[in-house]
Structure formats: C-alpha cells, structure tokens
C-alpha cells in the first residue's frame, strides 16, 4: 500500500527491516512528523500503555487530533487483522 501511495522501495524496505545501514539512513531522511508517527506505531504495537508523554507531545506537534486518531486507528486495525489472520492461519493474498 505504501508503494501505491508513492513511497520509495528503499523506504518500504527500511520500514520492514529496521536493521541499520540503508534502512537507518532512509528513516533518518523522513520528516520529523513521519518519524514520530512510525515511532508511535512501534510503541503502540508493544502496548498503548507505553506511549510516553514526550512521544505523544512530538506526535501532537506534528499532527492534529483527528490525524492522530486516524493514525491510531490504522495501527489498531492492522494489529487486529494481523492477529486475526495469524490465529486462523490465513495466508496473505498476492
């Protein structure tokens, strides 16, 4: 979906594999608002209780409340679908 919205192959690879090197460089070139959103997604993936005040303030400085709701909704729905499909052994479609 990111590629369909104009993300480079390098950026998509960086988001999928945060292992350093080119991935780290691609993420470092993102605007601070997008870096905050990706960090937020990583933290929410672990637990919504782990979102620090500092991270939320960076997110709120870059995105309006409606956008934060939408970002959180996308994170939550992605988590839901992944857990649902993984639990039922649903194979991804190509």
What's the short story on this structure?
The protein is mainly α and 94 residues long. Helix content is 67%, strand content 0%. The protein is globular.
Describe it for me?
The chain has 94 residues and is an all-alpha fold. The radius of gyration is 14 Å and the shape is globular. It has helices spanning 9-16, 22-28, 32-46, 53-62, 65-87.
Write the element-wise H/E pattern from the N-terminal end onward. HHHHH
Uncertain residue ranges = none
Query: What percent of residues adopt helix (DSSP H or I)?
Result: 55-70%
Q: State which percent range the strand residues make up.
A: under 5%
Q: What is the SS-derived class? A: mainly alpha
Keywords for this entry:
94 residues, mainly alpha, 0% strand, globular
Write the layout of secondary structure elements.
Layout: H1 9-16, H2 22-28, H3 32-46, H4 53-62, H5 65-87
Helix pairs in contact: 1-2, 3-4, 3-5
